[in-house]
Amino acid sequence: MSSILTRPSWQASDHGRWHENTTPSAVKAGFVSAVLDARYHIELAGGGHYNAVTLRSKVAEIQEKIPAGVGFTLNSLYVNPRRFTFQCPLWQEL
Q: Is 89 helix (H, G, I), strand (E, B) or coil?
């Protein structure tokens, strides 16, 4: 994955195991932009965004804090159908 993204990915772990509760940190614009600024790739946690307005606002806030051309991923799972119905189309639009 790092070769595709051209930068190493950042993952929270607990003693080598994937930590399932990264949403509290990976939903914050300051944290996500700091990881990107450190030249790592990170996912913006979709679970912390409850409507299109807050998600669009968060993406804009992150974009203001990172250099042009740096991208990030939205972690949007079909766990909550209501969130998925606005997150997936919005992410494609952005």
A: helix
